[in-house]
Write a structure and sequence with these properties.
Blueprint lengths: L11 H5 L2 H11 L12 H11 L1 H11 L4 E3 L4 H4 L23 E3 L1 H5 L7 E7 L2 E7 H17 L7 E5 L4 H12 L3 E5 L5 H11 L3 E5 L1 E4 L2 E4 L1 H7 L8 E5 L13 E3 H5 L12 E2 L3 E6 L9 E5 H15 L7 E4 L6 H7 L7 E6 L10 H8 L4 E5 H9 L4 H4 L7 E5 L5 H11 L3 E4 L1 E3 L4 E5 L13 E2 L5 E4 L12 E5 L9 E2 L6 H8 L6 E9 L5 E6 L13 H8 L5 E10 L8 E9 L7 H14 L8 E4 L13 H8 L29
Parallel strand pairs: 3-16, 5-6, 5-7, 7-10, 10-11, 15-16, 15-17, 17-18, 18-19, 29-30
Antiparallel strand pairs: 1-2, 2-12, 3-4, 8-9, 13-14, 14-25, 20-21, 21-22, 23-24, 24-26, 26-27, 28-29
Length: 673
């Protein structure tokens, strides 16, 4: 059988100039035994060293990223970098992992390094480009916002909430918040009142920032009426600040509300000062999707977030000063936090607010990439699959010469989508990445030194002791699926859960299955090459006839059928089954004009049987008009499973389209054994 060829191989000149090649060379010059960067084993050897010597590795990342901090004169910050790193546990002042305990830093200070006329932020929406901010303008606005928030009484530890679209003002507000040592938390403006209260109601913000309106799908949606309904349910909010954007601009009738410009003030910008605080001081509260109850509130620290993002942007993404980084995201998804950290590298951020494929211009994201000169383009696997289904050919209509990397996350990226990117976008690196809100970063991702093979994530993150566990809690053989786990601490573990004083919720979330080992909840396979394939969430893994299979293996086959726009698969307990066995049920959303007749049903089953296995073939296939998804765009298998099994869906507010669930309720096809 011929050996599979990579779909992308590092170009020698780029390879040699990469941050990662230089990082390895620097370590070698300081006596670390590693192969030359040009050797095929260089990345694997560096990863092994980073796991075996975490205190040395993360100190090297600190130096490589030029972290701005107060470091104790006696060097104790470096000596204490390894406290508690011999065992995995929730961060604890006495027993858990501690990182750089002698250092004090400010997150915003490390992101705001520029102060010149070069462009820091480019903003787009469905109408096209809407503005730019230079580094000098950005610092000016952050200085004003910092002074404005301080005048409103915001200080270290206070929460500031943004119910905002993905616009430059959202970044200004976050940087001002963290400059003061306060904690930033955000969600997108399409969240309803219940969804916002489920999140901000738990974390008690003292200031709420919102916009007067936002655009999506060619329509403008007003926010001013909704904020009047929201404020009485957030009693912690002392002040609300309205940013003019897409609405009518009329201030809501509430004494707590003021205009953005009033908070920024007039006249010269005040001096920009940053409060340096301990390494683990909180900067972000992020939320789980909340589809099984109230969202978990994950508190992330300044130093850990900064180090992880510096490592991922510089060493894995090879992002350089002045290059342009884009990710299609909202302020309610962790990829927004990840995107914003590109400022710490000196990159220019390209923002987009609106629908990814608006009817007026379905390929607007590719026009954005061309006209803004994007070097690294990020989106979801679902977007890439839909772009292929729609017949989109980005390189045919747009000059994408600057583009060198396409990132994908949110769900597993099918092998066919790798092919489509290389064929229709260009000979770029397809960097599928996976981690989560839990760690505000990645467990597995790309790198600039090793080839990309279709359907595979290139490898583990440096410093991340990623393994695949079988059902007995032991390392699974190569090529066999199992649980994604991490066996050693890493600095971007949450520093806490909100309202979890004894850490019980934290321990249950990650350490309940394997004591002393982080279980992430992904079902994953490691290839002999060292790459990874994620086949779905382990809590949504199917078990027909006692054979455990991942949902992504089915999606990969189904969505290659031209008539299928998207799909969702669950395991349903067989009605009337005495032993509780389950069957695979497939729901398909078809392209306009297609019909799920006997011929299409048989083609679907045949494709799954040949491309996956007989165990993957669904017993029941049903056509639906829509598929439920969370507000970050992920399909909600668990919500559908609950509806089909007759259980109450715990938190409808977590879904972007909860009305779609009605189509799954009481279907006669699902009641037959």
């Amino acid at each position: 059988m011929p050996q599979e060829m990579p779909i992308w191989t590092p170009e020698p000149t780029r390879f040699a100039a990469s941050h990662l090649a230089r990082f390895i060379a620097t370590l070698r010059a300081h006596g670390v035994t590693l192969p030359e960067p040009t050797q095929p084993t260089a990345f694997a050897a560096l990863h092994a060293w980073s796991i075996a010597h975490p205190e040395e590795f993360w100190a090297a990342v600190w130096r490589d990223g030029g972290v701005i901090a107060d470091v104790a004169a006696d060097g104790s910050a470096w000596e204490q970098a390894g406290v508690g790193l011999d065992r995995m546990a929730p961060p604890d002042p006495h027993a858990g992992p501690r990182w750089f305990a002698g250092a004090r830093l400010n997150f915003a200070e490390n992101l705001l390094r520029g102060d010149g006329p070069e462009t820091a932020i480019v903003s787009w929406d469905e109408r096209g480009p809407i503005g730019e901010l230079s580094w000098g303008d950005l610092r000016d606005q952050v200085a004003r916002a910092t002074a404005g928030l301080a005048a409103l009484g915001v200080g270290p530890g206070d929460r500031v909430a943004g119910w905002l679209p993905n616009i430059a003002e959202s970044i200004v507000a976050m940087l001002a918040t963290t400059a003061l040592g306060a904690i930033w938390t955000s969600c997108s403006p399409d969240f309803g009142v219940e969804g916002i209260v489920d999140r901000f109601g738990q974390t008690g913000p003292v200031v709420l920032l919102f916009c007067d309106g936002y655009g999506y799908g060619g329509k403008v949606h007003d926010c001013t009426a909704k904020v009047l309904e929201l404020l009485p349910r957030l009693p912690s909010v002392r002040h609300a600040v309205m940013i003019p954007y897409r609405g009518h601009g009329a201030l809501p009738d509430d004494a707590r509300v003021m205009p953005w410009q009033t908070m920024l003030g007039d006249g010269p910008a005040p001096p920009l000062r940053f409060l340096r605080l301990p390494f683990d001081h909180p900067i972000y509260i992020l939320y789980s999707s909340g589809t099984t109850g109230l969202p978990k509130c994950m508190v992330h620290g300044a130093g850990g977030t900064l180090l992880q993002h510096l490592k991922e942007h510089r060493l894995h993404g090879d992002l350089h000063t002045g290059e342009r980084l884009f990710y299609f995201t909202t302020c309610g998804w962790m990829m927004w936090n990840w995107l914003v950290s590109g400022l710490a590298v000196g990159a220019t951020l390209v923002l987009y607010d609106g629908a990814p494929m608006p009817a007026a211009e379905p390929d607007i994201l590719w026009r954005l990439a061309a006209e803004s000169g994007v070097h690294c383009f990020g989106t979801s696997a679902k977007y890439l699959a839909l772009a292929e289904k729609s017949g989109m050919t980005p390189s045919a209509g747009h000059d994408l010469a600057a583009l060198r990397t396409v990132y994908s996350t949110g769900s597993p990226l099918a092998a066919e989508s790798f092919d489509w990117v290389v064929r229709e976008v260009g000979p770029v690196q397809v960097a599928s990445i996976s981690g989560g809100t839990d760690i505000v970063s990645c467990f597995v991702l790309g790198n600039p030194l090793t080839p990309v093979y279709r359907g595979e994530i290139q490898g583990p993150g440096l410093g991340m002791a990623v393994e695949v566990f079988d059902g007995a809690g032991k390392s699974a053989p190569l090529g066999e699926a199992g649980e994604l786990v991490c066996t050693r601490p890493f600095p971007s573990m949450p520093v806490a859960f909100w309202h979890d004083p004894d850490g019980a919720l934290y321990r249950a979330a990650y350490f309940g299955e394997y004591p002393g080992v982080w279980r992430h909840g992904d079902w994953i396979t490691r290839s002999p090459r060292g790459g990874f394939t994620i086949t779905g969430r382990s809590d949504a893994t199917l078990n027909p006839g006692g054979v455990r299979i991942g949902t992504a293996e089915i999606y990969r086959q189904v969505e290659a059928i031209p008539e299928v726009l998207e799909s969702l698969v669950i395991g349903q307990r067989i009605p009337g089954s005495a032993d509780g066995d389950v069957r695979v049920v497939l729901f398909v959303r078809l392209v306009e004009g297609a019909v799920l007749d006997q011929a299409l049903t048989e083609r679907l089953r045949q494709r799954i049987r040949q491309g996956a296995s007989p165990h993957h073939v669904p017993r029941v296939i049903v056509a639906v008009r829509d598929i439920p998804r969370t507000r970050s765009g992920k399909i909600s298998e668990l919500a559908v499973r609950d509806v089909v099994e007759g259980r109450t869906v715990a938190n409808l507010g977590a879904l972007a389209n909860p009305e779609s669930l009605e189509e799954f309720r009481g279907r006669p096809e699902l009641n037959q054994g």
